[in-house]
Amino acid sequence: MSNIPAIDWNRVNILIDLALSEDLDSRGDTTTNACVPANARSRAVLLCKEDKMVLAGIKVAEKVFKKIDPELEFTALKSDGELCVRGEKLAVIEGSARAILTGERTALNFIQRLCGVATMSHTYANELKDSSCVVLDTRKTTPGYRNLEKYAVAVGGAGNHRIGLFDRIMIKDNHRELAALEGDGAIARAVKRARSAYPDLEIEVEADTLDEVAQAAECAVEHIMLDNMTNEEMKKAVAIVAGRAKLEASGGITLERLASIGRIGVDFVSSGALTHSVRSMDISLDIEVLK
User: What pLDDT, on a 0 to 100 scale, did the predictor assign at position 2?
Assistant: First the structure.
């Protein structure tokens, strides 16, 4: 696994604290505290219940359990990025029965979501395995979870687009419309101002038409997004740009279209589906009493 963003544990710790707080509030796990002896010990297994799943977030799950009880022993049996099948054990947790039960749902919520993102990313990336085109994520992420979801995308074998509004200039249709209030040449004017204000950042221009593709290419931007174009339009865009910028296909991207887009000559395909349309994977926590 390469080019995988590091997990920002400062942010993740905040997320875990918030998740546990909304689950436990001020009274804690009332059912477990009432029913399970304080000194009871148990072993639990995280179990894959999917026919095929890419693991992501195993260390996040461990962090959740350790927040409940630092003395819990958490042993990962699989690593992030590994393909797992139904019945495989992902990790073993041993120690206080109360702590394991209290952390169960929060830990599963994190890992099931991240495995869903990684598995979807793997599926999309696999459609482009025979081309040099790379599938990218977008900013259509769960609020607060962007670092984790982009981590899971990369673990699944896809690529990351910009992280946020701060790390790339991206001149989209609304930016162009507002820049056009000052007259013709909106794309060139917006690019010139962006270069002056943030000379260290790459610039991407969203193009809805082939004329806009040509204008963006003349401005020597690093990236041009081909927004909601047909395959034939994208072929023409490739010819117009002739290698002067990286081309990204976006909008109306389906799994079924990916292979054909990969043969057109664009460099990237971006899809919000990698993060906003995933199904959480089915993972269970099975517990047994230790004597």
Answer: 52
